Amino acid sequence: MNAASLEATLALWASSLREVKTRIRPLFTQDRVARSAGAFLDGLLGPERRKTGWMRAEAAGDRGPWRQQAILGRGRWEADSLRDIVRDYALETLADRDAVLVLDETGFLKQGKASCGVARQYTGSAGKITNCQIGVFAAYVSQHGHALIDRTLYLPKVWAEDRVRRLAAHVPEAVRFATKPKLALTMIERALTAGVPFAWVTADSIYGVGEIEMKLRQLGKGYVLGVNANSQFNSWDKQPAVTGTAETIAHALAPSAWQRLSAGAGTQGARLYDWAYLELADLEADAFNPELRGTWTRGC
């Protein structure tokens, strides 16, 4: 990249960042709080490798982290309104009727027990059961790019049923225990209510066969959901006949039934996976929603 192109790119980034700050300004009732929020955003995008409160404060020229900590703790503003602003901002560029809504979770390693929702639980980010918080996320993926558009903190039962911990962490009274699939369903419904265009939903085995699958049939949305090796499948009026667990069905397939595809580049090169597809049954859309027409094919 030559000097002129670099300057143009930096100018575009700076302009876009100013626009973002303008969009979120109505969330804050006071200018000083809005400035602190802007400084917080600058810090997250800055070059510091660790984004601690002190390091962000130093980058912002503050004498301590209190102003930026107030944004996350003492400040009164609607985080869900910010979520909606981010979603609408992303859709201005990414919206596509054939887009995919991707549901997944990630863990945030934490020490202690005071942070809201923290508990010993499994997280893929560590590959084990450890002390962490879990967030469920919805990403919007289209031919134009991808972005996160929704998020929800998972509140384990030990937290949801502990009034003392709830009060100390300021958990809203309306928040109750909900499974991760239930949280994902809420985000799907929220996207539909907001008019987010998408044709497909995909998620891993935590969100697989069950309530989410049935809801997506009712909505007329296509889906690719992960399942466990012991999940049972049976075909109806399809050849070849399919019956058994996902594991036994996969082992019985001939090598020629598999196709190797890349899921994108990783740190060690292309992330290659083997895929095979078997049709299970033809489903009439109006059997799940009388307002829908057409035939859906369920497969594995």
Question: What features would you describe in this structure?
Answer:
- This protein is an alpha+beta fold and 300 residues long.
- It has three domains: 1-77, no CATH class; 95-225, Nucleotidyltransferase, domain 5; 227-299, no CATH class.
- It contains ten helices and twelve strands.
- The chain has helices spanning 3-24, 31-45, 53-60, 66-72, 79-94, 157-160, 163-168, 180-193, 211-219, 246-252, and strands at 100-109, 119-123, 128-142, 145-154, 200-203, 222-225, 232-234, 243-245, 259-266, 269-275, 279-284, 295-299.
- Strands 1, 2, 3, 4, 5 and 6 form a six-stranded mixed β-sheet that branches.
- Helix 2 packs across helix 3 (53-60).
- The radius of gyration is 23 Å and the shape is globular.
- The model has no long low-confidence stretch (mean pLDDT 89).
